[in-house]
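=== RUN LOG ===
request id: a7f3
mode: sequence -> structure
chains: 1
length: 332
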Amino acid sequence: MLIRTGLFATSIACAIFMTPASPVSAAGNLPKCLYISSYHQGYSWSDGVEAGLRKGLRDHCAIRQFNMHSKHNNAIDKKVQAATRVVELIDQWKPDVVIASDDIAARYVIAPHFRDKDVPIVFCGINWTVDEYGFPYKNMTGIVEVAPVKPMLLQAQSITRGRKALYLGADTLSEKKNYQRIAEEAGTINIEVDHLAITTFDDWLQSYLAPGDYHFIILGSNFGIDNWDTTAAQTRIQQNDNLLSVTNHDGMMPVSTLGYTKIPSEHGEWAAAAAIQILNGIPPDEIPLASSKQWDLWVNEQLLDTTGLTLSQSLLRKAKKTRPKYTHTGDN
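=== RESULT ===
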């Protein structure tokens, strides 16, 4: 179910993914749009942003894409190397608009190199706040990624009657920002949230299955967790889970009971619309900043059966259902 609460307003050498020019753009008639993704193709969030962006920009500009692969190359020097390649590409190709998705592109490319420059910038997918980057600049507009945290927390509190939660997320910049915002929101409704920044799959699984005296678990993204194995996680959780787990990440629904998940295509669509306005002559700083307004509600019915918890019929009617196939894989 799509809930709308407002109007739609690897190695570094392989990091560049150049899309082929469309038949129209081959004639040189279209302006140039550069899309910088902080992550990689195959990561569900990035794929969703890209899909929305490409749909919106179709026939409006020739698109090139640079994937920074920061989930795979999390070391600072690798991020700096990728950012250097992006800056070189912008200098050489001279795009009419640059669209930058997520925090890594903002921190390593836009903030240090393009503050108040002539290149128009549209950002999207930045978690919660842009204050740390000093956005917006005079050459910039964008949409901030805001997850439906309070509805998720209130629902978890209602189901469990509990006030103590554990946040499990990868040891990454985005996940640390996610935890901080969730902890702030939780404090407003008297829920205490502790945090574990996880680096390996074994540590994640141990923490999930032996969470101590917490009433529910909040699952951050698994990207950045070494040796992640969804199948093994599903199997172990099905055998042992008796605790409610909730998430804002659709990619974590195979291992989560309940999800209030962001819709990445919203960011791509908004960024495309803003880029088109800029191409039509509207200055970026005259396009108001926005924040995401849409989310999906999910229930993992098989995990729900395992926990023994009961959800209201109203919630079950509204939610999308997922019943993943659990595959037993021996010792894996």
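=== NOTES ===
The CA atoms of residues 173 and 250 lie 19 Å apart.
DSSP finds ten helices and 15 strands in the chain.
=== END ===
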